[in-house]
Queue: 3 jobs
Job 1
Amino acid sequence: MTRVATNLQIDSARLWGTIHETAKFGGTPKGGVKRLTLSVEDKQVRDWFRSACEAAGCDVHVDTLGSMFALRKGRDMSKPPIGLGSHLDTQPTGGKFDGVLGTLAALEVVRTLNDAGIETELPICIANWTNEEGSRFAPAMMGSAAYVGDFTTDDILLRKDIAGVSVGEALDSIGYRGESPVGTQKFTSFVELHIEQGPILEAEGKTIGVVDSGQGVLWFDGQITGFESHAGSTPMTLRRDALATLSEIVLAVERIASGFGPKAVGTIGEAVIASPSRNVIPGEIAFTMDIRSADAEILDHLEKAVQAAVVDIAAHRKVEVRLEKVWHKPPTHFDRTLVNAVEAATEALGYSHRRITSGAGHDSCNLNTIMPAAMIFVPCKDGISHNELEDSTQPDCTAGANVLLHTVLTLAGVAAK
Ligand code: HGY
Ligand code: MN
Ligand code: MN
């Protein structure tokens, strides 16, 4: 197999152009992207992605949960491809780069190999994983979680959004309930490029994050049952106020997570009063909780401390609080050989870099449980993500895509002419 000189680089303007071209699918007036999974906007970008991959000579197929795979043939088709890619769905207040950079950089890698007339020894395969964000349907990283066997396809197809639409109905509504059973597409290994979604690389002036680990995640669905009563005539001492209860839970989660310093985080991201009215004391509230740590022991402490706090708050508030664990993703330790390959490609290209832990969850965190996986980070402006202000720079995105290109070339090998 021949080596490829690092002067083979991606087409920076073309990558930057595709990032901004696809941002129109769900583009918001504030310059963000609202492209919830399996929405009309998600269909638009999926259709765009399919035709772009087919135009680049890939065979595209879709699994029964809508994850898309674009296969570029290699010399030796007897071996599973090297995987690359990410996700194209966004948060409601999403930006142009989260998931999009990794998926479109993967397409750019294929386009660059085509331009250079390079045939890889192993095939390569771009993935667009369904519902990485977990905003419309839980859990997050849903398509890859089913792919690695954490959930059955039937279980996932029945998951419903807040409007009561199931994953199956949403897939059918956009025509992306594919033919191939989940797990059909095999990979030798997987590499994902992503923005850091945190402040470290930018603060340290580093171009590349060589991701060696990722936080573990616990998600809970909560239900508070107090007692609706008149806002004017109910004495403060007799109230069973669900919203005041939730307020105490929010502050308890903040106190407990902060107690572990930078090693833990906790968030209540959703809260819905069942029958809101300005002159009725809230009686029923549904909420969600997200707690994380890169340390499995701390994650376990967090869970126990939060559950104890909820019991205590429910008691003195004289309300019922139910907390159901709906997702547990243990901390990730990425494959050492692959992490070293990312680092070697970064050094060969001369980019500044550092090892880093991912605060956010990613599809590669799931994939790493059944195959070697690794990630490449680039900075994002002020570390902001899951916000319409999310931004990055063309040089940084180009650097990340070049590291992806050369890591994939190392893993797939270049077929001799
Ligand atoms: O929740 C996460 O970390 C990811 O953005 N889905
Ligand atoms: Mn993401
Ligand atoms: Mn995200």
Job 2
Amino acid sequence: MLNMPPFKSHPFDDDKLHEECGIFGIFGHEEASAHTALGLHALQHRGQEAAGVVTVGDGQFHSHKALGHVGDNFNSENVISELSGPNAIGHVRYSTTGGTLLRNVQPIFAEFDFGGLAIGHNGNLTNTQTLRKTLIKRGCIFQSTMDTEIIIHLVAISLYSSVVDRLVDALRQVEGAYSLVALTEDSVIGVRDPHGVRPLVLGKVGDSYILASETCALDIIGADFIRDVEPGEIIVINAEGIHSIKPFAPVTSRFCIFEYIYFARPDSVLENKNVYNVRKAIGEELSRESRIEADMVVPVPDSGVPAAIGYAEASGIPFELGIIRNHYVGRTFIEPGQEIRNFGVKLKHNANKAKIEGKRVILVDDSIVRGTTSMKIADMVRAAGATEVHLCISSPPTAYSCYYGIDTPEREDLMAAQMSIDEMAKQIGVDSLQFISIEGLYRAVGEKTRNEECPQFCDACFTGGYPTVLTDKEGGNNTSQLSLLSERD
Ligand code: AMP
């Protein structure tokens, strides 16, 4: 068992939350709040700790936020009918460090000189601490520990007059990853950061436009997919229709490749690719790269299933459900604290002994982060009588932290940052351990090869090549934001 140190929190902000989120917005629908609740339900895998909906109608904003699942909090006629108005945005969030506080539940709302503005954010900003210190010095009072609140304050102090101009002004000062939905008295706005790290799609149901993190949130309400919001694009939906602007300097698109590997729902189509098909293709590549002789391919459910199907199909080795998952337990990662996380793995999976006993097993999972899941699963499969246990992972080794909204621990807690692959195999207790190569991964997502100069995706968790500056991490030495702010003083 690895002796992992506890999570580190930032000294400036010790109840800092790492966010993984889903967002939804709808304009001009008589059942806007009910549709938003349904959309968020479809996006529940992106965030299970809290949910919130803000609606607006006749100049009145209404909001309901709660800790817990969408289905537990947006299930009554009362809640839905109090969220009146034809325009709405919603948010699901998931945090793994610090306390989960109601004041950190989104969408975040504030009153401005131009009226109310609510924002829901998926992603993480990387110059939050720097901007926050500056804003606090100039008198801004923060109500939460969310990076998203920075955007609210930057909008408040912007000297531009229209909401969209003020939002653009604010976003030009932030770094990192953001897909946003925003709600004003008369519009719903969608934004994707210039690299398009996190997803955001546009759809339509009847005459109403929808914005959502993933297409599965369109499917649930019978909406048609129109297109992805483009990296660096702002879409403004109001009574006049839909208006698109691209106010940021163009940069190469760097969609998060981990969305395909693990995070997004397999039935979603993101950046023109069905997530399930990509996962299967990764499994096929993995089987070609590993060439292991075995009796069966067993997925670690549920995240390993599509890659294991691809692996089995390409290798001709039978696919078997050698591990059964208890669906009434949340994702292992949710539990804050290593102790509970360890226990969580036992609660979640059980070996299907009758299938595994006396067999050479290839286990397929999507990723190894701390190694907790793999160690438990390997033990469990051996205890059930497998004669050989090989572990194949449908991502390259996760050796770097993500600062863009996928919660990964600090580098020292990442197994692959601390050990060689052989050492990992030994620690996990498997006969062999194989990760897909970065080139194999790029092939599986439809690229001939990875462009080394300027990769087509954000793959920083595997390569350390971060597409944006990491001002907070680098000690807040990037002062460009400070000068921008003081120019307005
Ligand atoms: P670990 O047990 O720490 O090695 O975590 C690996 C498992 O967690 C894998 O089986 C993944 O399915 C899952 N996983 C990987 N990354 C994340 C994430 N950012 N959030 C939640 N679960 C994750």
Job 3
Amino acid sequence: MSGPRILAIESSCDETGVAVVVGGRRIEANQVASQVALHAATGGIVPEVAARQQLRWIIPTLEAAIEQAEAAWDDIDAVAVTYGPGLIGSLLVGVNVAKALAVTHGKPLVGVNHIEGHIYANWLTDAPAGEPLPPEPEFPLLCLVVSGGHSQLVLMHDHGRYTLLGQTVDDAAGEAFDKVGRLLDLPYPGGPAISQAAQGATPVTRFPRARTDGAYDFSFSGLKTAVLREVQGYRDRGEPVPVDGIAAAFEEAVVDALASKTVGAARDHGVASVALGGGVAANRALRATLDDRLAADGLSLRVPPPAWCTDNGAMIGAAAAHRLAAGDRADATLEAIPNLSLPWLDGL
Ligand code: KG4
Ligand code: ZN
């Protein structure tokens, strides 16, 4: 057996995830209870509701993961949990359950940063035990982390060593998808719905690309306003809103912004590989465009399968293995930190 077997819990937002991961790579179990259907009714996440649902689902999800892994507590080497960033009420559920499990079963406890989890999803594999593992991403690794709460371009020098190259100055990419989805009367969450509407559609217009002060920063709020104005124009004229064509134009603008900054950063920093993470990494157009543009520079793109891009416990188990190897140990004083950031190295 290679490396520790970690039971990992993710409860930072509206997904309840529990996984068992060996050696930071091999998934033995990965159970996710999603609240998407519930939040669709309100068109977005209500934090109080999300927290209550975390409480409702954490134990059944934990039991399902342990059953799937066919693991006994004797076989588990550590318990890991997301302690931020995220919604405080949701985070607290996972953190408290993880503490209780670690204390009860006498296991080391590892606190994991949610963003680090999204990055480490690129190390995961579902290759069965005994089969060779796919190669690991190479350093220096450029990571574009794009989720509902975050949009960051991160230069990863080695395990646990990060430089923040750029980030959104307003909305996160996923947030922009969700808000524009609402403008277009598409179901929640907007990301997958827009992606589906845009597929095969011709963009109705070319939305302006935002200019930002930082070379690798993003901005999506102007684009959101441009979409609103476009929709309003059709309504004012009494014309039907061409949802698919607007979705395509919006998606094209977001993908273009994300891809051009990422390719620029990859060039400027001479990285060995490029990886995607976070819910928006599930976007087909983003994956295809980035893959094409990087290939022109002789770089290949790593992207986890869509199920590992959105929130899950396995990615937390992958990141935890390196935290554990580095000697990071939490204890019963571990607190949930809603605005937790990665431990950035100073400068470049
Ligand atoms: O990483 P994640 O599951 O949760 C956060 O940590 O925020 O990301 C959720 C976000 C949502 O905003 C959702 O609309 C977006 O990821 N998303 C997508 C797609 N699938 C999920 N955005 C664009 N295209 C998709 N296919
Ligand atoms: Zn996430």
